[in-house]
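Human: If only I could read backbone structure tokens as easily as an amino acid sequence. Take your time, and here it is.
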Amino acid sequence: MGAMKTLHSARFAWLQAHAFALALGLAACAAALPAHALRIKEVAAVQGVRSNQLSGYGLVVGLDGTGDQSTQMPFTAQAMANYLQQMGISLPPGTAAPQLKNVATVVVTAQLPAFAQPGQMIDVAVSSMGNAKSLRGGTLIATPLRGADGEIYALAQGNVVVGGAGASAGGSKVQINHLNAGRIPEGAQVERSVPTPLHDGDTITLGLNAMDFQTARKVAQAINARQGQGTATALDGRTVQVAAPQDPGRRVNFIAELEELQLPDSTPAAKVVINARTGSIVLNQAVTLGPCAIAHGNLSITISSTPIISQPNPLSRGVTVVAQKSDIAIQQEAGNVIQMPPSPQLADVVRALNTLGATPQDLLAILQAIKAAGALNAELEVI
């Protein structure tokens, strides 16, 4: 059993290492391709033009016995009683709480797009908040969706689409994907629009997606080259103020032209992003590596368990006892010192890292050590 665990671990580590080498190779190939010019709409957006989050509390009915258990979720019965009262139906006093196996309480969320007008339809997401087994086949009854200010901006209702399936019987259970969350395409109707300050004042402000003074300066230069000097001013590394026409129609055309303006090619700030949970490592084209020496070794721990059966003698009235014997072995491979040459380009960095033969999990620690030694010329970000 222990040998099988070690074999599976070795195969998993081999797959990880080769997958990482392939990913780094693809990154190197991408870096060798000629970069295309970016448009302003790809690096910045007009401030104030944004979506708004909506949420609501509702009920999904019509489930096939997979709803909330009312004894453990009392608010399901209370919400259903409130809904019946709105419909003019009230239960007699003293009536026991109904067992609503076909009803589930849910939280409904949606994104209200910018400039959405009353009557337009938007998608909604429906998520169970109780102990319902599945929302498959259910129907969401009318649910008001509110914004952060508590006002109702949309009304949701419709059949829930669940991208999964499951079955259980006799203690066995089979499930594909998630059954307690789904979507309703165009399931909410906008009831109120959100004012957008697009036409306020004689200027508009472009907000960059990422803080970078060089990009802010290039955006201002591209606008001034097209619309005339003094039209745009970079206020800081994130915002660019642009003088715009007062007429609404001309302002929309003006913004449409600005978004299509191309920016000269620029090299982004060198960054290495590490996902410590999955072992993913991503490097951009500006990453360079200085000369350094690295020693890397592997430590493997093998644990094997062997069952030992103690059988009593005949007529001794003894009891058969099963025990486990565990053997633990630790093996450490010798680590060689590897000289890493200077790598001025991403392809050279990829080639140097691949020579280490380390798994992605080992590279997490190696890259941090290279950064601490001052040989990695990039910002290291762990997510």
